[in-house]
Glycosyltransferase involved in cell wall bisynthesis
Amino acid sequence: MISISLCMIVKNEEKTLDKCLSSIHDLVDEINIVDTGSTDKTKEVVGRYTERMFDFKWVDDFAKARNFSFSKATKDYILWLDADDFLKEEDREKFRELKRDLDPTVDQVSMLYNLHYDDKGNVFSRIRRERLVKRSRNYQWHDPVHEYLEIHGKIMDSNVVIHHGKIHHNKARNLSIYEKRLERGETFSPRDIYNYGNELIENGRLEEGLEQYEKYFAANSPYIEDNISACGYAAHCCHLLGKREEELKYLLKSFEYHAPRAEFCCRLGLWYQSSNNPDAALSWYNHATQIAPLHDWGMTNVAARTWIPHLQMAVIYGALGEIEKAYEQNKIVLSYNPDDPQALNNKKKLESYLAKGITVATQAGGEKT
């Protein structure tokens, strides 16, 4: 059986770190925690799980901090997590089996990463990330912000899921790092431009963010998932700015890079829905329901290919007075989210309409669900 070093970087994580470490501490053989300047009780939490705690002077570079944490590992493989990540019980068992059965010729193991959830705890979006890497390969992290691990060799995709439980986000920190780099005269790679645009939008600087996305598109990046994601961010930015035609342009531009994704079909459905074009909206929503994920390495919007398009079609059919169709779509929503309050309210109203024999012909003007 392989041995595993957990390597993490932390700063002021007292609110989430205990949940993280309690979910993984007994599954690894070594815990290395690198603190980059905590002023809360983070170190006290760390002390409950390991004595291998190291200080690292923060230099506005996440890659350097992560590489320092990796340098402290002594076991066969390195597992990395953030302080607000954790494993649920079913995934602890999957991880235990993975550790027991892993072929030692594997260089890197990826795991699913559930990023966002709805109010009921249902997964809204997920991605796949490299998580467990062979120490002897000496993999290195790159880029000061939105750092990435450069990997190669034999890769295995596992079914272990890491859950993200973020409760706070320092929006200004990452933007500050990018702007300090610009002040120093650094030349940004296409990936830097893309991430800088994202940080500008996070901080409400929408027009500047759009400028960065245009620079990014002009750079002809070979990274398909970033290209598609940039289209989504740019469209969202235009939506917030009330630039409807530009929003449509960016949504359609995503199709230049790969087959349509369910998220973009739903967003096109919403665009046409708000343009009082129900036929076009229904077509795009219906298309979203038929798209299977091509892979799980890029960001996957789980809701956009499950319940969201059906909920919107229920709303549209209800407004058109096509009550039976609305009811059928709403049933599908409830099959995914049985406790969804909007769908439950729709069910009650639609059943009332059906009981009264309300049809397209009798419901003048249509009534929204």
User: Anything to note?
Assistant: The chain has 14 helices and eleven strands. The longest strand covers residues 123-134. The domain at 259-369 is CATH 1.25.40.10 (Serine Threonine Protein Phosphatase 5, Tetratricopeptide repeat).
